[in-house]
Write a structure and sequence with these properties.
mainly beta
């Protein structure tokens, strides 16, 4: 075989062995639903790390925070400054965004607004563990 024939055989072998990669699980998604979205209740604090239980909704008589699609967050929290039982709750509607493991939210409360920054430590179908990076209150 001369050099031209060897080159043609090698080129044909390479072209036949090359296959377009079509595994959809590896391709980047143009639109992806956040697995973070959901309702979280019963916070357990350990220093700046908090673990929430994931539920389908928040009960009327408990604290909870719900992250909805399109950047809507609803915090179900005390209606006023007093935390002595019986506690009256209100729903405060704000906004949220997520960039990788960082979640930022701006939520009103009875005295103004709160800016939250969380880092997601763990997220499962049953629980969310976050590290609270910052919480800034803006009084009205």
């Amino acid at each position: 075989m001369n050099k031209v024939q060897i080159f043609i055989v090698l080129a044909a072998t390479l072209m036949v062995s090359c296959k377009k990669f079509t595994d959809d699980s590896v391709k980047p998604k143009t639109h992806q639903t956040s697995t973070f979205e959901g309702a979280y209740v019963s916070p357990i604090w350990y220093d700046s790390v908090v673990t929430y239980q994931r539920m389908s909704s928040v009960k009327d008589d408990e604290y909870g925070i719900t992250f909805k699609p399109n950047g809507v967050v609803i915090e179900h929290a005390n209606s006023g400054f007093c935390g002595t039982p019986p506690v009256a709750y209100s729903e405060y509607v704000g906004t949220w965004s997520q960039q990788d493991s960082i979640v930022k939210a701006t939520i009103p409360y009875w005295g103004g607004t709160t800016d939250l920054t969380w880092k997601i430590v763990a997220l499962t179908s049953r629980a969310l563990t976050i590290k609270e990076v910052s919480r800034v209150y803006h009084n009205s």
